[in-house]
Amino acid sequence: MRGFAYCCTYVPLEIIEGAGFKPLRLLPSSPEKEDALLDPNFCPYVRALLAHLRFPQEIVGVVLVNCCDGMRRLYDTLRRFSPNLSVYLLDVPRKSDQEAVAYFANILRDFSLWLFGLNRREVDLEELRDKIRFYNRRRKAFSELLQRGPKMGEVLRVLKKGFPPEEGELLKIPLKGEKGRKKVLLSGSLLECEEVVRMVEDSGGEAVFLDVCSGVRGPSFVEEKGDPYLNLAQAYLKKPPCSRSFDPKRKSFLEKMISEVEGVVFYTPKFCDHYLHELVTLRELCRKMGRPLLHLESDYNPIISETMRTRIQAFFEKWL
Amino acid sequence: MNLFLKCLRRPSFWSLLRPLVCLYVSKEGNRPFTLWVEFLCWVFKEAWKREKPVIWANSFFPVEFVYGLGGIPFLPEIFSALVAYFNWTRGPIAKGSLKTSTDLCSFYRCALGLKEYGVMPKPDLILSCSQICDGTKAFYQTISESLGVPHLFVDVPFNKDQKARRYLKSQLEDVYHQAKEILGLKTSLEDLRKSLDMAKRTESLMKEVASLRKSKPAPFPGTEGLSYVSGMSFWALGSERGLRFFEALKERVEKAVREKKGYLEEERFRVLWLHHIRPYYPNPIMEFLKEKGVAIAYEEANYPWWPERRGEDPLEDVAEKMLSNPWYGPIEGRLKLVRDLILEYQIDGVIHFSHWGCRQSTGGASIVGEMVKGMGIPYLILPGDGADPDNYSPGQTLTRLQAFVELMERRWRFMRV
């Protein structure tokens, strides 16, 4: 099966797989970045994606999401400088009301038509429904694992390959050991480095929530009966919101998570506008709720830096 | 300092200041500028008086919609630019940066700081849209949460087809009715129509000004185009004051064209300025260009991009305007605009001002550059900061500008041969 890449949790993998492609979550393992075609004051993840996709291997194309200025400009740049790559931009609404759901359902229908066409196939709704059922089984298995309390560093390692993870992968995830560790919320944008989570765990913490783009942000269930596009649109727009969405649930969601932990680690790639603005709200929430906050900014590097290690250690020593 | 800040919050201060400052600036004989100052004094007076609801909006939110609702619009992004013009941004930016990262747009960091000083009239409602950058929604959402003020948001789709138009229009309808309900307003769609009619009349003047500015030598300085002219098109469209301003501007530009009088003594090169802003704090960029005989003939910020309003359905017209924005959507829209402007304004060189913290515009700078260079036109990406004077390197900036002028000279010699 040929690979088709994606970068955001708002992309329904059911459609990619239904069209006969293998969905591949793009998290380049190399920290190499493209600096000539995009300004240096640009998201390092986007620049790493561009470096990776200038000369793509083993993928037919990529679906990007209208999630940020970085991705929109990546879409423009790829179409111009990687002409052999099929690129699609999914216009995901920022709202989740009925009008937004109806609009997104139409967007998914168009995407599906394009993607099936790319594989020279007619759109097969039964195949799509079948994939929805298949992914629901995976989601169920994953949520059962979450109930049992897995080691989040390992969860992140598995989730980096895609959400929901394959059932076989879940079996390899060990459960948390000793009790009495300091509960921590790991929130933010893309967390590319599972060592950060391991470092939190090694410092005496327990990552209770992985509220990051590469973490637990997918829908928990997609309705199986009825119009598959409408069901997918509904499920993906109602999933745990990210800071890009205009959803009052986001703040209450943060509040609820903060209330259940003793400290917050906020992780963002540099120049991530959505999350750097959210930092203002998060700081205020943490101040009001009396929780310490550590903000880590990364330059997209799958290996943890020594500075970051020291900061995490210091955070635990001083505050937790 | 505290006394000064207190004064800024009093409507009577602005009532008193208005005639004095207008008299002072009118000595320059620049009527459009006088009208801009008069407009600002009026807005601040009305906003602090609080007789009408104060509505904060982002620059690309159609301000005629706010006038149509019967509110007083307040645009924090433009207010930050004003503060930068007076070179007062250091304090607010430092305050704002404490809350977030210095990598964010300095206009938003400045506005975050200004909120702490309490010099912006508190909104009764915030209206924002997703155009044209990510900072917009994020900033206003943060402000709404911290002030506890309702925030209505318009999610402008990236696509521009019929489905996108329907989705956008239904949101505008919702926002219109919700805003009226929240603010307890009795205004009708007829009021909105009146405001849009006013905008339509103003737009035809804007188009005439844009057309007059194609003349050689350049009749109007781009530096002014990038400050109060774009300020008025963002803040005053749909109001009587906006109409009067553009009438005066047209008169001024028309006179210069009639007299074949350029704004520079000797115009050697004509430059197109890309990006909606320039550095507003004191800096030698514009003076340097002037000395070298480089005229900023036009700036993309002032291009009236939207189609003529049909007037049948006011919300349909607003939706059409938003969807036709060339800076939002695939980059081809902006490329076409830049190409057309280069040809129509007989441009010799293009400067892309890359404001630190702006991903929306700078992200397209390379693609735009590739096209511009393909047309044989010198192109300069000028990194800088529109609001933060501490994020500006005069030496490097002037060296780049010098090299750019040399490129234009070389091209000119080559063309002569």
How does this structure look, described?
- The complex is a heterodimer of chains A (320) and B (417).
- Chain A is 46% helix and 15% strand.
- With 320 residues, chain A is α/β, with parallel strands linked by helices.
- Chain A folds into two domains: 3-125, Rossmann fold (3-Layer(aba) Sandwich); 155-225 and 240-318, Rossmann fold.
- In chain A, helix 10 packs across helix 11.
- Chain A starts with a strand and ends with a helix.
- The model of chain A has no long low-confidence stretch (mean pLDDT 93).
- Chain B has a single domain, classed as Rossmann fold (3-Layer(aba) Sandwich).
- Chain B is built from 18 helices and eight strands.
- Chain B has a four-stranded parallel beta sheet with strand order 2-1-3-4, sandwiched between helices.
- In chain B, strand 1 (54-57), helix 4 and strand 2 form a beta-alpha-beta unit.
- In chain B, helix 4 packs antiparallel against helix 10 (189-212).
- Chain B is globular, with a radius of gyration of 21 Å.
- The mean pLDDT of chain B is 95.
- Chains A and B meet through helix 3, helix 4 and helix 11 of A and helix 8, helix 9, helix 16 and helix 17 of B.
